[in-house]
Amino acid sequence: MTPIRHNGSAGSDNDAVLDAVRDCVLAVGVRRTTLTDVARRAGVSRMTLYRRWPDVRSLVGDLMTREWIAVATGAMPERRPDMTARELLTVGLVDAVRDFVAHPLFRKILDVDPELLLPYVLDRRGASQEALLELLADVLREGHADGSVRRAPVERQARSVLLIVQSFTLSLRTMTDEDDPELSAEAFLGELRGILERTLTP
């Protein structure tokens, strides 16, 4: 799966706008970002933005979708003939969590505007979560076929895996103590890989 983009010049224009809002958010946070700031950075008029995005939060929502899908898909390892679907999934998910917690935009939102993430934890699934569930379901089906993944209803299994990975992504820094090697981020990522291996192994 590749990051969702639009075709042609519209896609380029959208990426320029999303790049601009990313720069604004990294500089001042979401609450201090305005459509005027984004339009100026993107080199477009405010009316151009208003035709697609009614406010900054909707812009940031599209930005998060683009960025989070890119992180998740980029973390998946290159396929090898000797790699099972379970190994592909566990390695890719652990690397994705590592990349998420280091991602500048993710860190900025957690530090300054964490309430932006709450709806996707407490109320509803977002576009990036739906895309990640599709990716998970595809690899889980491969794992069922090659015998490396425990058989279960695919949609439920994908959602359960995402719940595990999402909790590590959002809360990892609250549990780590980098002065203690046994409680470092890498130590917890090792635990995550073990949890995924155990829940997916037939």
UniProtKB/TrEMBL annotation:
- The answer, when asked if Nuclease is one of the entry's keywords, is no
Please give the Pfam families that the UniProt record associates with this protein. Answer: TetR_N (PF00440)
Q: Which residues bind DNA?
A: 34-53
Name the keywords, alphabetized: DNA-binding
Q: Which InterPro entries match?
A: Homeodomain-like_sf, HTH-type_TetR-like_transc_reg, HTH_TetR, Tet_transcr_reg_TetR-rel_C_sf
Indicate the segments forming the HTH tetR-type domain, all copies: 11-71
Q: What is this protein called?
A: TetR/AcrR family transcriptional regulator
Q: Which organism is it from?
A: Streptomyces thermocarboxydus
